[in-house]
Specification:
Layout lengths: L21 E7 L4 E6 L3 E6 L6 E4 L6 E6 L5 E6 L3 E6 L4 E7 L4 E6 L5 E6 L4 E5 L4 E7 L9 E6 L6 E6 L3 E6 L7 H4 E6 L21 H4 L20 E4 L1 E2 L10
Antiparallel strand pairs: 1-2, 2-3, 3-4, 5-6, 6-7, 7-8, 8-18, 9-10, 10-11, 11-12, 12-17, 13-14, 14-15, 15-16
């Protein structure tokens, strides 16, 4: 069978400076923003809506390892090589918050349609940070392997936001139900699978994700009617804890 050739065209061409090493890149399709982090600590935002790129900086020379762009808010979050989370307001192009992650970050993820950032760490713990409000949760998920293993991927279910898939470098994948977080961590784990090999951040095909894990569709069961009935229940488990360090005293913004 002859495969149809897609009709592709270049809408806008932007050149990345080859003399400045890019260390992280992410594309956010709703706002059509491409964010690129560099070894120098700079972040550049490209969009067909902008006449030129926007440049942000963390104020020190440390490579940008992880980048996240919120789909419905003017917020970019980045984690550098020293383990600090930096949160920017892209409308005013200014740094708003920072947070020194207690354990070395290894991966990040977002809970769909929320501003909750998931941060996996080298020690296997997963932290929750609200990058829109500039606050972190007192709640976190401890490592589910013995001995402790780094988190290589953490992903929220696209429909049932209280379910998380956590993959560890030694091959274990667990699905946690945050709705059961009031009990023990053992009760929170719905399923556990062990695989011989999981791709890690440094390998050719990128980090592991829910789509990379065999039988992940069975592990992450959707609701029968497919409705996003649990999107508004995230606050049920994520008790707001300490505020992030504000780069601008008194910073507050009404995002509508």
């Amino acid at each position: 069978m002859k495969r149809a050739t897609p009709n592709l065209s270049v809408k806008l061409n932007r050149v990345i400076d080859p003399t400045d090493d890019a260390t992280a890149i992410v594309f956010e399709p709703v706002q059509s923003i491409t964010a690129i982090g560099y070894a120098s600590g700079k972040i550049r935002l490209f969009s067909e809506k902008l006449p030129t790129h926007v440049e942000l900086g963390i104020g020190r020379s440390s490579e940008i390892r992880h980048l996240v762009v919120l789909s419905s808010q003017p917020v970019v979050a980045a984690i550098d090589g020293l383990g600090t989370l930096w949160v920017f307001d892209t409308d005013i192009q200014r740094l708003c918050f920072s947070y020194n992650v207690p354990l070395a970050p290894t991966c990040v993820g977002l809970i769909a349609d929320t501003s909750w950032l998931l941060i996996g760490t080298e020690a296997g713990r997963v932290y929750f940070v609200d990058v829109l409000e500039g606050k972190k949760s007192d709640f976190s998920i401890g490592c589910q392997t013995r001995p402790p293993s780094p988190v290589v991927s953490v992903a929220a279910h696209p429909l049932e936001t209280e379910k998380l898939l956590i993959a560890y470098s030694e091959g274990t994948c667990v699905v946690c139900d945050l709705g059961k977080a009031s009990g023990s961590e053992k009760a929170m784990v719905l399923t556990r699978h062990k695989y011989e090999h999981l791709q890690t951040q440094g390998e050719t095909d990128g980090p592991a994700s829910a789509a990379d894990v065999d039988s992940s569709a069975a592990m992450l069961q959707t609701t029968q009617d497919g409705q996003r009935s649990q999107r508004d229940s995230v606050h049920g488990y994520a008790n707001i804890g300490s505020e992030l360090t504000s780069a601008r005293p008194g910073y507050a913004r009404n995002y509508g």
